[in-house]
């Protein structure tokens, strides 16, 4: 122990106390400038484990700032999953924005205090927090104030476009492919999609293209329930009806939604805001069907599993309840992030132990593949059980392994793919036919026994 230790400890304690006081009095609504200041304050407090970057800007030119937490900010480390939270997509639904500011302050404070759970989370995960996807809408809503905010004022962006109805609709293609054994993941974007979306949506889609997100939630208000995909009903012809639209990963999505609702102080009780949701969760389409939403887009265009969290009856609650809301959501926000570490993960290599980027990982019985990132690492959320998993990549023979997943940390499962002999190409038709029984999308030429 060196001589200055006591002095340093005392200094740290005092600083800690000082900061605790500064942040604990921070239960207030944050206008844009205050939000930016709060994010940069966290960044300067925790500069070795945080980074701030902008994914683009709003119609009125406000930056869409993301605060990242990682032991190596700015870098994707192989085998370390990427997680995101998105708040305030509807400008007048403001609780998520405030909760994400609180969460950022909490992660920083607890990391500095040596909280083992938070330290581990930050070391093993790359966490991206976008407190406001719609800063222009927020300013419109906030200028009216909590008590006077109309139900729809500030919901859309400054062109009054609802951003949660603004993503390219990939469901129709997905539902068509389900009937025709077509591609089951990474649906193609329509031509000219960039011209068809708002700047805020464009920024978020480019963000999804640049990071291989595994898990996400977007935070809303107006109800209290964890809503999971699909949001869009398979039978859009029957207007006004609610029909459950399950994804191929329905059981995982239910587990993810339950993780949040049961870790939340009251969401799981079911009765909230005059509505009842069993266990505090609902399939989106079975509540009400919507097209062009963000959570369906995440699942259909990327590897990311996203749910929509409705967190308050009052879309713009008074500042006096923010501290209670933070305490009600804190454990849920942390527990949900920890879910990114379940299932399986691993590397896909070639014969020379060089990583193969963008390989496809399919799980028998679940018609939704994921892909490895450019560095060759993949992440596949799964419930406990035994699975047959196949990795395939163009020009290689697929490889199938059996794995048993437990309730704890993700199981590591690595694949080594052999280069496909040239003659295999000639057998494309026959092997594809055999293969279609076990794999439902465009097959790479392969033998299911491989
Ligand atoms: Zn909303």
List keywords for this structure.
alpha/beta; 2 domains; 450 residues; globular; Aminopeptidase; 4-stranded mixed beta sheet; disordered N terminus; Immunoglobulin-like; 33% helix
What does this structure look like?
By secondary structure, the chain is α/β, with parallel strands linked by helices. It folds into two domains: 4-341, Aminopeptidase (3-Layer(aba) Sandwich), CATH 3.40.630.10; 344-438, Immunoglobulin-like, CATH 2.60.40. The protein has 13 helices and 18 strands. It has helices at 5-24, 32-45, 95-112, 116-124, 135-144, 171-180, 193-196, 199-210, 250-263, 284-287, 294-301, 322-338, 428-435, and strands at residues 50-57, 63-69, 82-87, 126-130, 213-220, 223-228, 271-272, 275-276, 281-283, 305-312, 344-349, 360-363, 366-371, 377-380, 385-392, 399-405, 411-412, 415-416. The strands form four sheets. It has an eight-stranded mixed β-sheet, sandwiched between helices. Strands 11, 14, 17 and 18 form a four-stranded mixed β-sheet that branches. Strands 13-12-15-16 form a four-stranded antiparallel β-sheet, with no helix packed on it. A hairpin with a 2-residue loop joins strand 12 (360-363) and strand 13 (366-371). Helix 3 (95-112) packs across helix 12 (322-338). The longest helix has 20 residues, at 5-24. The structure holds zinc ion. The site of zinc ion (ZN) has 4 residues, from loops.
């Amino acid at each position: 122990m060196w001589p200055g230790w006591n002095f340093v400890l005392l200094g740290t304690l005092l600083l800690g106390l000082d900061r605790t006081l500064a942040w604990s009095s921070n239960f207030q609504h944050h206008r844009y400038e205050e939000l930016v200041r709060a994010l940069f304050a966290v960044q300067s407090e925790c500069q070795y484990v945080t980074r701030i970057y902008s994914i683009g800007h709003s119609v009125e030119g406000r930056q869409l700032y993301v605060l990242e937490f990682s032991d190596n900010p700015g870098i994707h480390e192989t085998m370390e999953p990427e997680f995101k939270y998105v708040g305030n997509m509807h400008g007048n639904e403001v609780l998520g924005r405030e909760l994400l500011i609180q969460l950022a302050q909490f992660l920083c404070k607890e990391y500095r205090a040596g909280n083992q759970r938070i330290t581990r989370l930050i070391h093993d995960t790359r966490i991206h927090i976008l407190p406001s996807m719609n800063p222009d809408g927020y300013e419109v809503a906030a200028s009216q104030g909590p008590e006077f905010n109309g139900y729809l004022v500030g919901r859309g962006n400054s062109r009054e476009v609802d951003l949660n109805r603004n993503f390219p609709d990939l469901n129709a293609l997905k539902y068509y492919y389900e009937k025709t054994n077509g591609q089951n993941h990474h649906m193609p974007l329509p031509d000219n999609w960039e011209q068809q979306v708002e700047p805020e949506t464009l920024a978020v889609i480019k963000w999804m293209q640049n990071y291989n997100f595994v898990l996400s939630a977007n935070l809303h208000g107006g109800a209290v329930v964890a809503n999971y995909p699909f949001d869009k009903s398979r039978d859009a012809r029957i207007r006004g009806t609610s029909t459950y639209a399950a994804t191929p990963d329905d059981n995982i999505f239910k587990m993810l939604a339950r993780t949040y609702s049961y870790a939340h102080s009251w969401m799981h009780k079911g009765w909230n805001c005059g509505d009842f949701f069993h266990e505090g969760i609902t399939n989106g389409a079975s509540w009400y069907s919507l097209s062009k939403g963000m959570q369906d887009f995440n699942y259909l265009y990327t590897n990311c599993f996203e749910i929509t969290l409705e967190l308050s009856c009052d879309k713009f609650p008074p500042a006096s309840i923010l501290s209670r809301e933070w305490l009600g959501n804190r454990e849920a926000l942390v527990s949900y992030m920890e879910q990114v570490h379940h299932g399986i993960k691993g590397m896909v290599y070639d014969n020379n132990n060089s990583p193969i980027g963008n390989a496809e990982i399919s799980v028998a019985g679940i018609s939704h593949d994921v892909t490895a990132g450019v560095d060759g690492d993949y992440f596949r959320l799964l419930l406990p059980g035994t699975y047959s998993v196949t990795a395939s990549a163009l020009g290689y023979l697929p490889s199938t392994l059996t794995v048993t997943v437990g309730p704890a940390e993700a199981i590591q499962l690595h694949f080594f793919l052999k280069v496909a002999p040239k003659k295999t190409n000639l057998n494309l038709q026959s092997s594809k036919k055999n293969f279609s029984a076990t794999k439902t999308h465009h097959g790479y030429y392969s033998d299911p026994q491989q």
